[in-house]
Amino acid sequence: MDQQGVFTGFNISYPTYTVVTPQTNRKLEVRCLNVSEVNKLKTSITTAVKIPEIINRVVFDSIKDKPEDLATLKQFKKAITSKDREALLYGIYQATFADTVEKLSVSCKECKASDTHSLVLSNIFNIEPFPSELVETYELSKAVATEDIGEDAELETISRIKKVEEKNKVSKKDSKLNILNRREEIVLPKSNITVVLRSPTLEMEEESITGKFALSKDLLELISEIIVIDSFKIYGENRELVNSVSNRTDILYGYQQLPLSDRQYLLDKYKELFSRYGISLVENWTCKECGEDNETEVDIFTHFFRMAIR
Ligand SMILES: [Zn+2]
Questions:
Q1: pLDDT tens-digit map of 286-297
Q2: Is the same domain home to 128 and 28?
Q3: Alpha carbon of 105 to ligand 1 centroid (Å)
Q4: Ligand 1 centre and the CA of 293: distance in Å?
């Protein structure tokens, strides 16, 4: 007689990828997604407000041997920033799909001629870690380089390590800083309003859109823009603090009143102070039509979904 036990699933060992989160410097191993997880992502596309929640769950589940302080999804969302998630997604992309992006649409900034490119992601990968211990900052690029074996790849790794070393010397005074506690005050040039910026965690991102199903798409976009704002500060004539605005609805209301150029200034400052710490995938290419040099940024989030819904 056949042995018929209870089927409890396969015992599969999935491909993994080691990632260092660039803003909080955690070394985490992620595994590839399975059929069920890709399917969840596919169906999440139809509900914009559900995307962060589902993607956070999937990323969290993909982390192997979770450290004690990241054991629950709640802890994970508090401790990881949205820029960190980009790096984790990159690792999951590598483990699940491939080291390539196929048929990327590009267009020349000069003559507007369009073209499609196929790229090797690890060749255009770069990471700028938030100042921290040197050893932990370049692991992701190291993992990338060993993946495609070749002398060029080895050299590439060395130059990346050097770059990080130099940068660390300059910013040594910042090395003890935790980006999760970092707040930066900027003064908007046109309106003279003081804004306190922060690097949003996954929890802040989710909270900002919870229960907002009925909102229009452009309002949702504004909400996702203001998650980098911790508060507005209003100072009196003698620089005494008159009011501090940290209620999310008030921040949204205030943000919508800002002059357009102040919005750009705010976004630029956020990039300079926070979001530049992360991974970047930038392809440099020369236009076949006019010879102009171009840079195209590959958004890992977009391509992740593109692959998931194929
Ligand atoms: Zn061109």
A1: 999 999 999 999
A2: yes
A3: 14
A4: 8
DSSP annotation of 289 reads: T
Average pLDDT over residues 122-129: 87
Instruction: Give phi and psi for 170, each to the nearest 5.
Output: -65, -40
250 located within any domain: yes
Give the pTM: 0.81
Residue 170 CB partners (closer than 8 Å, separation 6+)? none
Helix axes 300-308, 82-96, angle to 10 degrees: 40
Beta bridge partners of 229: 197
- Counting the structural domains of the chain, the total is 2
Contact assessment for residue 229 and residue 186, using Cβ atoms and an 8 Å cutoff: no
Answer yes or no: do 250 and 144 share one domain: no
Distance 191 CA to ligand 1 centre (A): 38
- For residue range 40-90, list pLDDT tens digits in order: 888 877 777 788 888 999 999 999 999 999 999 999 999 999 999 999 999
Give CA–CA dist 248/207, Å, rounded: 10
* Pair (228, 151) in one structural domain: no
R_g (Cα) of the chain, nearest Å? 22
Buried-exposed string 77-96: b where 16+ CB fall within 10 A, e elsewhere: bebbbbbbbbbbbbbbbbbb
Residues with C-beta atoms within 5 A of ion ligand 1: 108, 110-111, 113, 287, 289-290, 292
